[in-house]
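Hi R.,

As promised on Friday, here is the backbone we talked about, encoded as structure tokens. Could you run it through your design pipeline when you get a chance and send me back a sequence?
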């Protein structure tokens, strides 16, 4: 009878061990996919073009020039209302 209990206990232990190994493999695969996705997003961010802030006035796009004038106008209105 004791050999049967020992056999049953070792079977449960083996099943638990295989379950832990399977869980670790799945967690590692998910982590690898997450890191891959993160690195790919960083790689695509390198190729995104950002317009620099400190550029000479002749190379600013007309849209940015209009936005800057609008912001300056709003700042002047706020300062005038504050007086």
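Update: got your reply. Pasting your designed sequence below so it's all in one thread:
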């Amino acid at each position: 009878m004791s050999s049967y209990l020992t056999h049953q206990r070792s079977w449960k232990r083996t099943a638990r061990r295989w379950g832990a190994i399977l869980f670790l493999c799945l967690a590692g695969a998910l982590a690898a996919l997450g890191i891959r996705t993160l690195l790919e997003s960083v790689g695509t961010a390198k190729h995104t073009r950002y317009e620099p802030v400190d550029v000479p006035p002749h190379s600013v796009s007309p849209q940015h020039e209009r936005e800057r004038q609008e912001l300056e106008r709003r700042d002047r209105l706020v300062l005038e209302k504050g007086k």
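One thing I noticed while checking it: Helices lie at 2-46, 62-82.

Thanks again,
M.
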